[in-house]
Amino acid sequence: YCFQYVKDIFGLNKSKAERIMLEVFSVFYLRRLSKAFSQGELERATSKGTFLRSELHFDPFHSSEDSSMYF
To answer: Taking the mean position of all CA atoms in its chain, how far away is CA 66?
Structure first.
């Protein structure tokens, strides 16, 4: 799991490494979501929640704890 490698390579404590991984994931997630929206994939999806979970491997737990970063 890359989380462990990040911690070991940079000598980070667990909370700092988790924060970095969450930021990297957030950037990827937002780019993919933007692409899905602009190409109409999100609109065509039968369920937005299912799309987020299956296509983006979206973890609702992380969204609730980190939503303040964007709003």
So the answer is: 10
Q: Are 55 and 28 in contact (CB under 8 A)?
A: no
pLDDT digits (tens, 9 = 90+) for 47-56: 887 887 787 6
pLDDT at 2 over 60: yes
> Quick one: which H or E segment has residue 66?
helix 60-66
Dist. CA 40–CA 45, nearest whole Å: 9
Nearest residue to 62 via CA among 4, 27, 22? 22
Nearest C-alpha neighbor of 49 from the set 58, 37, 36: 58
Structural tokens at position 61? 């737990």
Domains of the chain, by residue range, sit at: 2-69
- Prediction pTM value: 0.58
